[in-house]
Amino acid sequence: VSGTFADRVYELVSRVPEGKVTTYGDIAKAMGRPRAARAVGAALRANPHPIVVPCHRAVMADGKLGGYGGGSGTPKKVKLLRGEGVAVKDGRVDLSKYRVRKL
DNA sequence: GGAACGGCTAAGG
DNA sequence: GCCTTAGCCGTTC
Predict the structure, then answer these.
(1) Which of A9, A28, A43, A55 is catalytic?
(2) How far apart are CA A52 and CA A91, in angstroms?
(3) For the whole model, what pTM was predicted?
(4) For chain A, which terminus, N or C, has the lower number of CB atoms within 10 Å?
(5) For the segment A15-29, what is each residue's pLDDT rounded down to a tens digit?
(6) Closest nt by CA–C1' to A53
C-alpha cells in the first residue's frame, strides 16, 4: 500500500511466521514477480526497518542465509534464526522444515 | 535519463 | 559440495 516494490517485500517478510524462513524467490513469486528475486534482495538490502522487517528470515533458494548487512552480519542472522527455533547448519537451514509453504 | 549494483535463481562442470 | 555463466528485476547514484 505503499507503492514501491520494496515496501511489498517488507510486508511479506514481516508476515513470515516466527521459527520459519522464506526464500527471496518465494517472496518475489508471492508478489507476482518470480523473476525479481534479486529485486527482493535489493529491497531488503535497503531495508529501512531492520527490526520491523525480519530480513533474517529471508534465505536463499537453497536454504543458505545468503547475506545480511554485508557478510559480517550473516552470523548474526544465524543467531536470530536460532533464537526463533530455526536450526541453522553451516549457515544453512532446512527449507523442507523451516521454509514457509505459503505466505 | 542512464549506468551500476545487489542479501538471487537455475543449470552446468 | 563448490564455483561459473547467463538471465531478470528493482533500487540507488
Answers:
(1) A55
(2) 23
(3) 0.92
(4) N
(5) 999 999 999 999 999
(6) B7
